[in-house]
Amino acid sequence: MPLWSRTCHLHKPCAIVLLVDRRSNRYIASLLSSSPEPVCTWNDAVDKEFDKKVARGCVRPIARGAVTPFQAYPWATLKTVAIVAILFRLPATCMFFVFLSTIYPFAKRVTYYPQFVLGSIFSLAFFTSVRGMDVDPLSKDNFAPSLCFFAANTIWTTIYDTIYAHQDVADDVHVGVKSMAVHLRNSSKLLTSFLALFITGLLALAGALAGFGPLYYIPVVGESAMGLGATSTLVKLAEAKSFLNPVGWPEPPNSPYVGVTTRCYWGVLGEKSPLSAFVEEGGGGAAATQLKPNPRPAAVHEVTITSTQPNMSWPRSQLLEIGDQSWCPSWLHQHEQLSLTKLWNLKVPFWSRGSLATQACEVFKEYLQDPSSYTVLDICAGSGGPTPVLESELNREIEAQGKVPVQFILSDLYPHVEAWQRISKKQQNVSYIETPVDARAVSRLGKEKECRIFNICFHHFSDEDAAGILKSAVESADAFM
To answer: Has residue 83 got a pLDDT over 50?
Structure first.
């Protein structure tokens, strides 16, 4: 591994800023480049009894007896003193980082989420380094983007360390070591894939809040998304050698991106940067489509919805709506729809009381009186979303009461007919509209009472279009949620 690449690893962001910042010197950076050594020594000393019983850990110097704990502690202390000496050049709040670095070895004894603890500790280096540039990441202007960036870095560590921990699952269960790999087992890949998507959103949001331009989004958000996605998809949890090199890269997955991403962020926060020149101006989307909804009975009160465009200092960005782009192939759009449907029906053990779909069903039953009298139109159904669960749960109760079951209709601007056909074959109360349905111009289906449901779909629309969609629902439907 080349010497320069050591500063690109997750535990080296401080070294990067010291190397590139003109107010620093390379002597301090060279000392800081060895900063993980006391932490690793401390971790091995505390975990020596565990390591002796784990196949991969039993070869470590302390576990195999080549180095005694009484030899290791003075070495770790000496290195810690060197780091503290460096931190004295930074604001006093940075000293808190030293204390937190000692916590991780104990986390695996009390919680199944030590990876989250580790990620939080590593990500604190971000705040330490930004403070070292005389920038307050917790100020009013910087707090929101800093929080997004901190969370993204924390989750990044959680992903890679969860995958890495699968090497020791069998031994950890026997020894009693807790980890997300032990807790989740076969669900790890699904969770890490979801977290990878979440990181992409956080990095994009951090860029939007901080006013970054294309020079940030392309290398940082784009390449990080590609790397994380490839890692989560291609890693083979049953093969140990796959953990460090899941896609054949010469370095551990994504190792450069955290350092590079962090530096991009510091550059805009702490200094006048060329990045700021790439910030686009303006906001909002295309003009609203003229709607011609069918008239409602006179008894319905007139409702006026006014759209207001907030005065934002950054452009309105739709970064994750890949399927809305004209260049997006249909197969990719359908894959995106299927993935979202899986997320709707995903239940994380011990995390939530049910899937998002079952929770949506509870809201539906609570607020819609006499649902059997309605026909339910899913406006942006994708590949089904929560609607199959809604139909199943709701009609089970309704039919038990001897009432007529609710009819559900799936519709979308991009109809996923193949997925809808599979659903309708299994559930006779679910039908679909084969032709594209534009949510901005939906007319009443018939004489039956109609309830329109919008399942997390308004992020696809501009403020003007969203206002028109709600106005149409008020004027031409009997209920919506």
So the answer is: yes
